[in-house]
Structure formats: structure tokens, C-alpha cells
Amino acid sequence: MIFDLKLNDKTSKKLQIEDYIKKLINEGLLQSGEKLPSTREMGLMLKVSRNTIIKVYETLCDEGFISTTKGKGTFISGKKIRSNTGQHLKWGSIINDYTKKAENLDIIKHEMRSKKGMISFDSISPDKNLFDLEEFKRDFLNILSLEGNNILNYGYAKGYKPLIDCLKKYMSDKGIDFENKDILITNGFTEGFDIVLSSITEPGDKIICENPTHNTAIKLMKLHDLNITGIAMEEDGINAFELEKELKEGRPPKAAYLIPSYHNPTGIVMSSQKRLSVLKLLNNYKVPIIEDGFNEELRYSNSTITPIAALNGRGNSVIYIGSFSKILFPGMRIGWIAADKELISYLESIKRSRNIHTSFLDQAILYEYLMVGNFDKYVKKAKKYYKEKYELAIKYANLYIPYTKLSGEGGLHIFIEVKGVNSRKVMKECYKKGVIFTPGDIFFTNNSGEDTFRLSFSRVSKEEIERGFKIIGDTIKESLRRI
Ligand SMILES: Cc1ncc(COP(=O)(O)O)c(C=O)c1O
């Protein structure tokens, strides 16, 4: 009990009780808005007359510590706590190297941010106006009434079984053989990749990836203290010749991280032949492949492309990480790892030790959404919507931007290179004119790419694509004139 004051006979009981209540308020043990016991109850608790408590409350009221509302009771008021026991620590000198590194690599904090009213080509998040909220609400209510309390309780680290089965079917349809393979549900690609790196790498290990590559992946590889070896990109994916040379002559890598479909940032889709040759090559050197299945669904032409994990058949050397973040709802943070059964069992332990499991409520809603056929409907709608914007982006890039190289075969962005132009300088000028994009250098593993630009079109209107690309193009032309 909070009011357990032992009164002494040395000073007045009224003063002792006043000081005691003030102390509780100052130390934060009684918070603003909290109700005090009635004068009768408090008198009984402290073994003093009710009259004494009435006088205590009157004084505290006068001093602004408490206030009384007729018919409701007596409450702690919002008076500022003047605690002299509070400690002030310099957290900047307490945080460890990992935290300092994470803060340094946190581009959201350190890069220029879009402001309201600007034309933003910087984010590859989906357009929220495409989300079918009414359908989502129906699915939410359906699954809640079907599952009841079950999905509000603790679940399994591996994930919500119906969703796992549904994803197995989804992946099997892409050609992946599930004999001796399994799935772990994660909080998006990002957690999946972090868990995989935690399970197979040690600080100092070498990891191969495409150069440029996904910035979040670079951040995680750096946070795991890995030695990143970036291999240049060609028009049809990673340069296999350079990859082979690295495998032959360099230190053996622990893994290779690849984004074969709508590679971020170049938007390049690795050709089928290259998928096969890269797989063979890495298998020959017994290097596990971490395949990022990012955006596979956003293919605007009708031909399908087989994931590397499918080409590997019954082999278990490919760890596939999937995510619906860029097509469906990134806010749900649901992704999955499809890999060898034994490996998934190890990864499951890491997942459990970190955050027990991904929200079962979210997984169940996503399952319902997929099961009732909404996903297919949505992908159709999204493809049509983004394809139109993609075509406009290509059209206006050709019309307004004097690029030396352009890539992007689908997805939500295009990538350009303008030889001799510094994209950060262009960005500063464009920012003043209300346009923002992502300077390409953040995606490079070797401090290069200063003449590259990633232009995302997912969240801008068609009219903004034209207006924004013209501003970028004009700014680049001005910059070229100054050279
Ligand atoms: C290459 C790549 N993979 C995966 C993702 C999705 O990550 P997450 O599922 O954590 O949102 C992104 C998002 O930008 C990406 O660029």
C-alpha cells in the first residue's frame, strides 16, 4: 500500500501527512490525475481523525498539489515534479559501437527528407491509395470471428500454420521444391535477412553481393561486421565473369546475397541463363545464396521468371527471402524465409529468442486476404496502375533527362546514370525547386555511383512524373553546361 506512513510524535501529524503526500508527488509515485482516497478512508488508513485529513487536503489544494471536484473526489493536479533524486546520464557516451554504427548508417536520419508539397521520387513504398481498405476490414473481421481468441494469444515462432501452408503453395507454384524445405515467417525481408546473417556469418566474414545493392542490406551486412565484396551489374544481372574471378582468386565468401528480380536500385531482372550460370558457379564453390525475392510479382510483361531457389530443385543451398512489402502492405511487416528444413529449425530459435514470433493477428489477416483471392485481384490492379506510371517514367526520362544509361524493367523505380554529373549536387538544386529523389551512391558498396540517380514513381501522380522529370532534366543540363 502506498499510504503506509508511520507518524511520530515529534511534529504535527498534519504537517507530516502533507510532507509525505508532497514527497510521493515529487517522486512521481502519485501522478497527475490520480485519485486520492476520500478523507474518511485516508483517516482510517493513517489512524488520524477525518478532520486532520480535511485540513491536509485543504492546504495541499491551496498550494496547488491537489484539486477537489465536487461529487467526484480529490485528484493530484498537474503541478511540476521537482525531484532532486533524478539522474542525468550522457547516453551518447554510454551507447556501444553497434548503436553508433546503426545511427551512422541510418539514412532516414541523415539524408534530405521530402517535405509536404514536394514531388517525391525518393520512396519505393507502394501507393497507399491502392490499398483496398474495405476488403481488408472484412478480412480482419472474418478471421477474428473464425479464430476467436486464439490469434490474440502467444503463437508459434515459426509462424501461423495456415499462412505457412498458403505460402508453401504460393512458392511451389513458382517452381520451388519443398521436399526437405520449410518456411519461417519474419517481420519482413529486413528481419529475415538479419536472422540469416546472424545464423551463418561471423564478424570479418566475406559476403558477395551485387554492386550496387539494396541499402538496408548494406546496412545490415555492415552491422554484422562483414567484408562486403560488390560485383558489378550488367544489363542482365550480376557480372558472372567478375563473380567467377572473385570466387577463383579471392578469399572464400560465406554467402552471396542476390536480388535477381527488379534489383534495387537498378531495376534489372537477371536473365534465366544468368540465373542458371550464377547458381552453378556458386554451387561449385559451395557458397550459399541468399535470394531476395523482392517484387517478383511486379512484372509488367506477361512472361514469368523462375526464382533461383526453384532452379536449385532439391538442392538446399538457396535461402529464399520473400516479402509482400512493395506490393501489399509494408506496414504489416510480414515476410518469410523458405529454406532447408534443418536451417529453418536453427533460424526459428533465433526468431524465438529475439521477438517470440511475428504478430499472429497480422499473419492471420494476411492469410485471409490471400485465401479469399484478394491478393490476385490486387496484384492485377497494382500491375496495371504501376505499369502506366512506369511507361510514363521511361517516356519522360527519354524526353527530358540527358542520361548516359537507364535501367529498370519493372517494379517501382528506374535508375539512371549521367556521366560526369554529381547527383548530390543536382539533388540540392532540385530540392530548392521542390523535387527530391535518391542519390544513387547510397546503394554502392565501394563509395562510387556519385553520377547515379534512383527515381521512384510509385507515389507520384502521372502529372508529377512529367513535371518532376523536367525539373531534374533541366537541372542536370545546367550542371553539364557548367562542366
Ligand atoms: C531489395 C529489397 N528487398 C526487400 C525489400 C522489402 O523489405 P521489407 O520486407 O523489410 O519491407 C525491399 C524494400 O525496399 C527492397 O528494396
Automatic annotation (TrEMBL):
Boundaries of every HTH gntR-type domain copy: 11-79
InterPro entries: Aminotransferase_I/II_large, HTH_trans_reg/aminotransferase, PyrdxlP-dep_Trfase, PyrdxlP-dep_Trfase_major, PyrdxlP-dep_Trfase_small, Tscrpt_reg_HTH_GntR, WH-like_DNA-bd_sf, WH_DNA-bd_sf
Keywords: Aminotransferase, DNA-binding, Pyridoxal phosphate, Transcription, Transcription regulation, Transferase
Protein name in the entry: PLP-dependent aminotransferase family protein
Family: In the C-terminal section; belongs to the class-I pyridoxal-phosphate-dependent aminotransferase family.
GO molecular function list: transaminase activity
Transcription regulation keyword on record: yes
